[in-house]
Specification:
It contains 12 helices and 12 strands. Helix 8 links the parallel strand 7 and strand 8. The structure holds NADPH dihydro-nicotinamide-adenine-dinucleotide phosphate (NDP) and ligand LL5AMS7Z. This is D-glycerate dehydrogenase.
Length: 319
């Protein structure tokens, strides 16, 4: 008998075909709009789970006594309760690598858009306010030759550093728990303790995973250390930042502006003050979202899942 797999996010047709050849597949294109109780019912007999964002908690796993593998279509896996998965012998996988350049493009684009106030200017033109005079109130700040501090110089951090160093002649500072000789040699990056990075950077870009250690890593104290001319970019996870402190720092001009792809709560609440601030550029957690990259991620996630169910070691097993 075929093993049963639940796919709870929309995936390309060829990925579904691949899975259908090997497994019995229950497909929910969008769990948010479909029956969650039906999903929980199906979970009882499922061996594999493929999707993204869903919180894989103790409560959910209690509905899944036969589960062998959970395959995330994302690199971040802060939605997994790893302790619970480990204690039940359930494998967990993610999709690193294939999304690096696309995400770096988005985050560097967000940095440029924030520095040069592009969404605001787009609205200015489209709303007919452009009357031919050059208005100093619309000036942005330079990106080239400035100091970029990257917190979390991993795969995506490095790809951002590459763009900044070769494309924009930026000086790169970085902070990790460990030093990285490759970025120091290739992009002339300088390792800094967090506080020093915050004090010296014109742009602070956060790219760490969300873990107990990075929870609210950037809060009131950290915003106080930053220059009042600095721009804060968060492409990682909203929970890595104390959002109340960020709002205050922006409202009080403690920092100049922020570009955000991620938020404490997603989707962001409609009355979140961040949405009212002119010095904030927002994106809807869209870092890896091009058709090409999302297809690659879904394919890789399906391959990880298939490997796990066929008794092989998945390429992207989370240890
Ligand atoms: N906005 C979006 O759409 C996307 C967001 N992401 C987010 O970006 C994150 C990073 O992805 P990726 O670059 O592939 O991951 P990597 O694992 O390659 O890099 C993470 C980096 O963070 C550093 N890090 C981890 N913990 C800490 C800490 N406590 N303090 C300082 N640095 C730390 C690590 O270095 P060290 O171990 O030396 O500390 C490492 O260099 C993902 O986990 C995800 O949350 C990813 C893809 C898309
Ligand atoms: O946020 C996206 C991811 O892949 O992680």
């Amino acid at each position: 008998m075929k093993q049963k797999v639940i796919v709870y996010r929309k995936v390309p047709k060829d990925v579904l075909t691949l899975l259908n050849e090997k497994f019995e597949v229950k497909y929910y294109k969008n769990l948010e709009t479909e029956s969650y109780s039906d999903f929980l019912q199906e979970l009882h007999t499922a061996h594999g789970l493929l999707g993204s964002s869903l919180k894989i908690s103790k409560e959910l796993l209690d509905h899944a006594p036969n589960l062998k593998i959970v395959s995330n279509i994302s690199v971040g896996y802060d939605n997994f309760d790893l302790e619970q998965l480990n204690s039940r012998g359930i494998l967990a996988t993610n999709t690193p690598g294939v999304l690096v350049d696309t995400t770096a493009d988005t985050i560097f684009g967000l940095l440029l858009a924030t520095a040069r106030r592009m969404p605001e200017l787009d609205l200015y033109v489209k709303s007919g306010k452009w009357n031919g005079t050059k208005d100093e109130d619309l000036f942005g700040v330079d990106v080239h030759h400035k100091v970029l501090g990257i917190i979390g110089m991993g795969s995506i951090g490095k790809a951002i550093a590459k763009r900044a160093h070769f494309g924009f002649d930026m000086q790169i500072l970085y902070h990790n728990r460990s030093q990285n000789n490759q970025v120091e040699n290739e992009y002339n990056a300088e390792y800094c303790e967090l506080d020093e990075l915050l004090k010296r950077s014109d742009y602070v870009c956060l790219m760490t995973p969300h873990t107990p250690e990075t929870d609210k890593l950037i809060g009131e104290r950290e915003f106080r250390l930053m220059k009042d001319s600095s721009i804060f970019i968060n492409g990682s996870r909203g929970k890595n930042v104390d959002e109340e402190a960020l709002i205050k720092a922006l409202q009080n001009q403690r920092i100049l502006a922020a570009g955000l792809d991620v938020y404490e709560t997603e989707p962001i609440n409609k009355d979140n003050p961040l949405l009212k601030l002119p010095n904030v550029v927002t994106l809807p957690h869209i870092g890896s979202a091009t058709k090409e990259t999302r297809d690659k991620m879904a394919r890789l996630a399906a391959e990880n899942l298939a490997a796990g169910l066929e008794g092989k070691v998945p390429l992207n097993l989370i240890k």
